[in-house]
Q: What sequence folds into this?
């Protein structure tokens, strides 16, 4: 609570933690995580997040957003209370209620997720192997809002987390026959509000709405209703927030005397939903006011007013970045952001910094942090080595075949339980995921090979936070893997099979950005370039025309796909892109950027929403190309490593209170 009040965590993070404490879980449809309906405007062409009229009243349950409906539910409560006095069955003689079902139950969850496997099958089982009536099926957000707040006296549901991050639930990708409504329109994809350009943009804007100043100010009222003191007792009665007794935490159907009542109560528990555990007995305190006011100079998206760019290096809300620190490190080639917010490690060529799982070390001594080690390759004996301590000889990890040399290496030095902190790509196209464990007797190495490429590995990136690994080869194949199970997920589309030079994954969106060489194409050159078109690749003729228009003027092309292979957009770059990364500021209060390092030494920033150009950061008195770029762990700094060994740190003026910047050679960390 304290973290939320002082702004250390977002509304999203706080609500998900409350759901966990309240017993809600993705593993139980009856106790699925619940989030509030936040918006009330699903018809305007432009959504104004600064206007209170755009939001629902968070102090009232969904069923009584319209004040004229309050008396209806009060009458229901009074009628049940009168029936109790007349001495009905033990089941009915329990606490009277305003609503017949809860705001979250299996039916409501499946209503939203009916288009997404495996929830489709669960929905059919729930509905006796039938889809719902077409007019009642989730087909329009505006209709859903209207039914809950005006037309339907029994529909009181709130939202599920997926409506804030999973655009696939709006698409009928499986081609389900959901029927035809009475107006003659077939139920297919969900109709989106006019202010949302597409399903992905809706989830991004919806997430911004959840973090809006109005929601932050009034969110404690909703928490009081769902998790707090207004859940039960007189406060619940005053708030018109009383649900059937069987939906509350601790209800035991077996305590009823009659068998009929026990059976009926058990069925009600299975279908009506279960309320979260009551976490608060007093009103929830409010958050401290946000003193940072968003700039209106550069709008985030044409369909929304009041969305925030956030506070990260290069943000349009802040001043242009300037160099605040620089250091020359001989042989510098790659950068690794360290857990300390203003620190970066610099590795030389043919070396990589990894987090080492030390079985012999005491976690208390390491403050819970995994020790670091330096991997090196390219030695004359073709053996990959591991340096754990400066005063100890390196450990020998594994031998590299002389005919299959290493072409790409990616590693993770941040802690977080990444199962394979080292991934190696070879000239044959083989990708090897390596786990290294340090023991008192030495090191134990476990490696697993991934086989999906027929050409040399050109790009690798692993995202421990999302459990994803992406690999790319020079012939244009881009493959996504599950980092935990090392299983194949999918191959990303690549029109014309352009050669891939770099890939990266967004930690916050899980989007995949790939950099392509526009000066050459491998399309069908060797018979292995044919890729079956993905149904999710919705890049249209307009995009194809854009990419091919005056292509000779450009050297690189950046394409972005979602984790489910849906095309987001592309942008052509005049200069050759030599490295790429995402910023990692919290979603909802930020719109992150794609940072592309150029052969000229400059950095171009693009919006992660629509790849709109945001800013050009000029090179600091050097003509050398950038070899590596990375944002700091809090995205307040952007670090760049140049071919001459110069490492610089950029920061937007006024972003944070000045503090020392640490640029540390990797070999000095252990």
A:
């Amino acid at each position: 609570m304290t973290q939320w009040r002082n702004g250390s965590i977002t509304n999203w993070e706080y609500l998900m933690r409350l759901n966990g404490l309240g017993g809600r879980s993705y593993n139980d449809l009856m106790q699925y995580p619940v989030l509030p309906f936040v918006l009330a405007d699903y018809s305007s062409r432009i959504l104004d997040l600064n206007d209170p009229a755009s939001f629902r009243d968070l102090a009232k349950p969904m069923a009584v957003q319209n004040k004229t409906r309050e008396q209806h539910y009060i009458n229901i409560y009074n009628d049940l209370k009168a029936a109790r006095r007349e001495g009905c069955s033990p089941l009915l003689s329990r606490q009277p209620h305003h609503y017949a079902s809860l705001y979250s139950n299996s039916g409501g969850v499946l209503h939203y997720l009916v288009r997404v496997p495996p929830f489709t099958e669960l929905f059919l089982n729930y509905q006796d192997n039938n889809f719902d009536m077409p007019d009642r099926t989730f087909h329009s957000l505006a209709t859903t809002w209207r039914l809950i707040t005006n037309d339907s006296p029994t529909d009181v549901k709130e939202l599920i987390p997926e409506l804030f991050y999973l655009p696939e639930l709006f698409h009928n990708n499986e081609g389900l026959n959901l029927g035809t409504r009475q107006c003659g329109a077939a139920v297919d994809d969900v109709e989106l509000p006019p202010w949302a350009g597409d399903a992905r943009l809706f989830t991004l804007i919806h997430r911004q709405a959840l973090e809006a100043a109005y929601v932050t100010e009034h969110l404690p009222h909703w928490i009081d209703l769902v998790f707090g003191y207004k859940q039960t007792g007189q406060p619940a009665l005053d708030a018109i927030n009383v649900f059937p007794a069987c939906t509350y935490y601790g209800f035991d159907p077996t305590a009823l005397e009659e068998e009929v009542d026990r059976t009926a109560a058990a069925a009600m528990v299975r279908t009506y939903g279960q309320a979260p555990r009551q976490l608060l007995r007093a009103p929830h305190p409010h958050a401290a006011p946000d003193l940072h006011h968003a700039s209106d100079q550069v709008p985030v998206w044409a369909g929304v007013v009041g969305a925030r760019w956030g506070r990260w290096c290069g943000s349009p809300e802040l001043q242009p970045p300037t160099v605040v620190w620089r250091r020359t490190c001989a042989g510098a080639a790659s950068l690794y952001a360290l857990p300390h917010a203003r620190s970066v490690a610099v590795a030389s060529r043919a070396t990589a910094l990894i987090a080492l799982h030390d079985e012999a070390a005491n976690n208390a001594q390491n403050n819970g942090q995994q020790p670091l080690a330096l991997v090196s390759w390219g030695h004359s004996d073709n053996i990959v080595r591991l340096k754990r301590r400066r005063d100890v000889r390196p450990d020998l990890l594994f031998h590299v075949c002389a005919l299959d040399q290493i072409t790409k290496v990616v590693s993770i030095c941040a802690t977080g339980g990444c199962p394979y902190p080292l991934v190696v790509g070879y000239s044959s196209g083989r990708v090897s995921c390596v786990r290294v464990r340090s023991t008192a007797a030495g090191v134990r190495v476990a490696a697993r090979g991934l086989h999906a490429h027929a050409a040399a590995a050109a790009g690798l990136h692993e995202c421990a936070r999302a459990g994803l690994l992406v690999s790319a080869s020079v012939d244009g194949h881009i493959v996504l893997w599950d980092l935990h199970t090392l299983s194949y997920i999918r191959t990303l589309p690549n029109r014309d099979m352009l050669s891939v030079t770099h890939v990266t994954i967004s930690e916050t969106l899980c989007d995949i950005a790939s950099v392509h060489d526009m000066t050459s194409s491998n399309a069908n050159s060797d018979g292995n370039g044919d890729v079956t078109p993905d149904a999710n690749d919705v890049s249209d003729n307009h995009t194809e025309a854009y990419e091919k228009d005056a292509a000779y003027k450009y050297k690189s092309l950046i394409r972005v796909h979602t984790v489910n292979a849906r095309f987001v957009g592309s942008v052509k770059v005049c200069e050759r892109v030599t490295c790429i990364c995402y910023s990692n500021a919290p979603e909802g209060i930020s719109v992150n950027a794609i940072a592309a390092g150029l052969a000229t030494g400059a950095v171009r920033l693009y919006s992660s929403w629509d790849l709109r150009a945001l800013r050009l950061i000029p090179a600091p008195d050097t003509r050398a190309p950038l070899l590596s770029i990375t944002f700091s762990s809090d995205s307040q700094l952007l670090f760049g490593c140049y071919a001459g060994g110069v490492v610089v740190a950029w920061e937007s003026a006024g972003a944070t209170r000045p503090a020392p910047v640490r640029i540390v050679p990797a070999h000095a960390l252990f």
User: Anything to note?
Assistant: The two ends are 37 Å apart (CA to CA). Residues 308-669 form a domain with the Methylamine Dehydrogenase; Chain H fold (CATH 2.130.10.10).
